[in-house]
Amino acid sequence: MGGQPEATMTRLTKSNQDATQQKPSTISKATEYAQADETINDDEILLHARPCPYWFEDGDIVLAVENSTFKIPRSILSTSPVFDGMFDMDLGGVDDRLDGCPLVRIPDSARDWMVVLQWLFLRKESYTSALSFMEPELPDRNSIRFHKATSALRLSMKYILPELHNIARSILYDMFGSLYHDEPFFWFSCEQAVEAIAVAEECELEQLLPSLYYGLTVQAARFYDAPPPDADWARTMDHAHHARFLSLHSLLTSLYHA
Questions:
Q1: What are the residues whose beta carbons fall under 8 Å from the beta carbon of 175, sequence distance 6 or more?
Q2: 183 or 187, which is more confident?
Q3: CA neighbours within 13 Å on the CB side: how many for 57?
Q4: 71-119 pLDDT tens trace
Q5: How far apart are the two ends of the chain, measured CA to CA in Å?
Q6: CB atoms within 10 A of CB 119
Q7: Which pLDDT score, from 0 to 100, does residue 252 have?
């Protein structure tokens, strides 16, 4: 990796200034944060309004993800063959460094990494703790499960974390695998339906697509007489997804007015 411009390094260092002053010193501290899941506000951490719980004095690698940085022990990531292979290489000659550690930039979502890191640290403690994190008994449970499952699916597929991937798949199948649910099916927003469609396509969960497209179509029909092409959620859909949605929306509307 090439040398890092001084201005960017200054920004990265400043963004972690509070975190380095209040660093947890042991891995067990991270599990305390993760187990108290309802106290973790991703937005506050990502905006640096709170110290990141994953910045350790004894960490030996720094991940830079979007505007966030995580200084963690490599052993936490070694369950991934992708990272394990990276660590087999000599990182001592890496030019980009932060707080004395190799700095690795990753083109992912920092919010997704917050979920996966919480899982990985809790998994070191026990499978039960990690599973409870993914399946919390909290208010707004469906939205929380959705956020964690979609984040976990994206990264577990990319970095080959089969145990987490299977759990996240099971959660999404439980939520969207059938139109017949004990709980109301249409708890989700159009934005969440669009994200779920993209994740299902990316992670090869084709069986979920019929119920997801149907759910998006019904939700859109509830709020709009015609699909709004300028809606934020509509603009995020790729051409093929949007074309399928428009076709289903037209069919559903024609049946309703028949």
A1: 142, 145, 146, 149
A2: 187
A3: 8
A4: 999 999 999 999 998 888 766 666 788 998 999 999 999 999 999 999 9
A5: 62
A6: 26
A7: 72
196 in a structural domain: yes
State the pLDDT at residue 54: 87
Is 162 within the bounds of a domain? no
Residue 137, CA distances (Å) to 38, 131, 165, 185, 187 in order: 10, 11, 21, 18, 17
Strands, E assignment, 9-89: 61-65, 68-72
The average pLDDT across 237-254 equals 80
* 62 in any annotated domain: no
Domains held by the chain: number: 1
Domain housing 228: 178-257
Residue 102, beta-bridge partner list: 97
pTM of model > 0.90: no
245 within a domain of the structure (yes/no): yes
Is the per-residue pLDDT at 129 higher than 80? yes
- How far apart are alpha carbons 229 and 39 in whole angstroms? 37
Question: Of the given ranges (141-150, 152-161, 236-245), which has the lowest mean pLDDT?
Answer: 236-245
| 226 Cβ neighbours under 8 A, 6+ residues apart | none
Token reading at 178: 């059938």
d(CA 46, CA 201): 27
- CA proximity to 159, closest of 212, 61, 91, 87: 87
Of 258, 246, 235, 169, give the one whose Cα is nearest residue 213.
246
Q: Are 153 and 165 in contact (CB under 8 A)?
A: yes
pLDDT above 90 coverage of the chain, percent: 35
Place of tokens 């369950």: 79
